[in-house]
Amino acid sequence: xxxxxSQARFLSLTARKSDLEFNGQQINQxxxxxSYQTSTLFSDILTLTDPAQxxxxxxxxxxxxxxxxxxxxxxxxxxxxxxxxxxxxxxVKKVIDKNVEMTFKxxx
Length: 108
Known about the structure:
Elements: H1 3-46, H2 51-107
């Protein structure tokens, strides 16, 4: 792979890594929102007097926990993708370094 192609690949991988980081931040923000809503529901439960409402609140809390587990799996998937991209970035950096070194040896 030539220097220009390697540099283009490096830039593409860097953009992909940034996109994955942004997606991870969005998922973490959504998890924070769910955490806040769960906390609010727990506060509401403390003031309830009707047992039927208690069961409804418990169902809502379980739904929030289910959503959080889904988001956690998505976040783990994104983390795995980030590691793969970082590994490829490291490999491309080595190729670029070798290309630069060979170029300077040629002209030296």
